Write the structure tokens for this entry.
Amino acid sequence: MIQRRELLASSLGTALLSAVGMAQAQSTKPVRIVVPFAPGGVQDILARSFSVEMGAALGQTVIVENRAGAGGTIGNAYVARAETDGSVMVMAAASHNIAGSLYTKLTYDPQKDFAPLGHIGSASYVLMVHPDVPAKTAAEFIR
């Protein structure tokens, strides 16, 4: 039995194969993918499209559950406290890995309490300012 919670954060095929292996041991429970952010964001959209394929591959129900708040830590903490039977996973984001540096009192260990299943995708971030701001680089903006 896996003692760490599953973390959906690293190829779709790998994650599906891992999930199929988990489900064989626990096929009566629905699989839940917790999205630690509000509905409509990147993780939510990925989880909902992923859940359809995962459900078909497993032949069972896959539920996407949003538990937003505190930069993803509310949903992550929920998954960290969930049963360790492989039926609850989290659709993590970069914030999952840096939460330990940002918050002094997490109720879970982002590195030790989760096991990666697969990389689903990547997203880029852009820093933008009003055109009247004279900064042209991040360093200029910080100065």
In short: The domain at 5-142 is CATH 3.40.190.150 (D-Maltodextrin-Binding Protein; domain 2).
